[in-house]
């Protein structure tokens, strides 16, 4: 059970790090959006990827919290987190592949 809690914490740390970093990149893009047509083209993809990582962060946080508190909804939260990673990865491939 401890290994699962550590894995949830690692997933949470990674997704939050990506989400915050991409949030800062979104802010920099927004400030300089008129500087380059390429930035205008990349803007929707950047927003989509950032949103995906924020949602994955929320799922990972919920999973970690449930593990930490031994909540009754611990296993549904863990399943939701794993499904979120799978669906998020497929969405990232779709967004970044276009």
Question: How would you characterize the overall build of this protein?
Answer:
This protein is mostly helical. The termini are far apart. Helix 1 runs antiparallel to helix 2 (37-69) and helix 2 (37-69) packs antiparallel against helix 3. The model has no long low-confidence stretch (mean pLDDT 92). The chain has one domain (2-97). 89% of the residues lie in helices and 0% in strands. The protein contains 3 helices and no strands.
What is the gist of this entry?
The protein has helices at residues 2-31, 37-69, 74-97.
Q: Which structural class do the helices and strands define?
A: mainly alpha
Morphology call: elongated
In terms of DSSP E residues, the strand content is under 5%
**Rg calc:** 16 Å
Q: How much helix, percentage-wise, in residues?
A: over 70%
Low-confidence stretches: none
What does the main sheet amount to?
none
* Terminal-residue CA separation: 39 Å
**Residue-averaged pLDDT:** 92
Helical segment count: 3
What's the order of the H and E elements? Answer: HHH
Total domains: 1
Number of strands: 0
Structure characteristics:
3 helices; 98 residues; mainly alpha
Strands, helices and their partners?
Layout: H1 2-31, H2 37-69, H3 74-97
């Amino acid at each position: 059970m401890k290994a699962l809690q550590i894995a949830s914490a690692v997933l949470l740390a990674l997704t939050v790090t990506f989400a915050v970093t991409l949030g800062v990149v979104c802010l920099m893009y927004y400030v300089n959006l008129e500087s380059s047509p390429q930035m205008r083209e990349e803007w929707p993809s950047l927003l989509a990827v950032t949103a995906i990582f924020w949602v994955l962060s929320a799922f990972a946080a919920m999973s970690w919290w449930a593990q930490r508190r031994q909540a009754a909804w611990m296993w549904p939260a863990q399943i939701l987190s794993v499904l979120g990673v799978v669906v998020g990865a497929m969405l990232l491939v779709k967004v970044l592949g276009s």
